[in-house]
Amino acid sequence: MPNTTIKFGLALQNYFTAEEYISPRSLVNTAIKAEKLGFDSVWVWDHLLLGSKNVFPIHESLTILTAVACYTEHVKLATGVLVLPLRNPVELAKRISTIDHLSNGRIILGVAAGWYEREFQACGVPFNLRGKILERNITILRRLWTESQINGSYDNYQFKNVTMEPKPLQKPCPQIWMGGYTKKVHERLSKLADGWISYFYKADDFKESWQNILENVKRFGRDPMKMNNCDMVPIRMGDTKEVASQILHNFVKKYCDLPSWSKATVESGIAGNSNDFLNAIQRYEQAGVQTLVIMPAVTALSEIDTQVERFAKEVMPSI
């Protein structure tokens, strides 16, 4: 795989409950801290509307990353994941290219087809065509980023001698990673994406899916050595494993809606002291995880930075 030593990313908490609030500026400050502490990447969640049972306010993902780009120098900036069918691909190509220049080539575009039908209805996008639209939009994005002149039509998008400049700094273009659980999604990302974004996968489940993805990559005539991945998991550092585990479980129940039909599980989380973390991270690394993206489990949003600092100081130096 592209790297042999596991890297660490941080999921910024850009969504919250209706009873809470976290400011965009505080998210930027956390990203600045993460870069200073040695994290390889920061990730933001993406929705325009969120909440099938309860409303979850959410700050717009690319706006947050644009701000983070202005105050950092090295940390990679990623969406985990952007609901691609809801975006105009021409407008998105321009935005991502501009962020790539602003960040000096640090953007990773994580995408998915989406799952929240009410969000699609509000945006006037056919929910039942979301997979087809995702594939179409990826094609348009890459063409705009890499070709000097585009001709052709994709549904209602008509290109007649179209040129988008400036091209992104990253060559041939920014990487597109794809999230998802199902076999169909894994086949799609094996054909179209530069990486896989998994959520709440235990090490053994990750290893099984990752091996299947790499086999699909070979089947499509692509190089598996160029395929990237990450696993997003909740974490809670504490003096006792029991107390930390309870906080982690309560946090996931409050903030996360894990599909019952997927392999995503709260049991993917890491809780306890530094030794507990080192053992768990070793299992993830042996399973093939290249970047472990942590989501700090907290009892109050004001605790996030404390958890980030503890992880960086007590765990990362030993990896």
Fraction of residues in helix: 40-55%
Count the beta strands: 12
The CATH C-level name of the domain at 7-226 is: Alpha Beta
Put simply, the count of helices is 10
GO molecular function, one term: alkanesulfonate monooxygenase activity
Organism: Candidatus Marsarchaeota G1 archaeon BE_D
Protein name: Luciferase-like domain-containing protein
Domain Luciferase-like: 20-293
Could you explain the architecture of this structure?
The protein has 319 residues and is of the alpha/beta class. It has a domain of 220 residues: Alpha-Beta Barrel (TIM Barrel), CATH 3.20.20.30. It contains 10 helices and 12 strands. It has an 8-stranded parallel beta barrel, surrounded by 7 helices. Strand 2, helix 2 and strand 3 form a beta-alpha-beta unit. It starts with 6 loop residues before the first strand and ends in a 5-residue tail after the last helix. InterPro entries: Lucif-like_OxRdtase_Rv2161c, Luciferase-like_dom, Luciferase-like_sf, SsuD_RutA_monooxygenase. Keywords: Flavoprotein, FMN, Monooxygenase, Oxidoreductase.
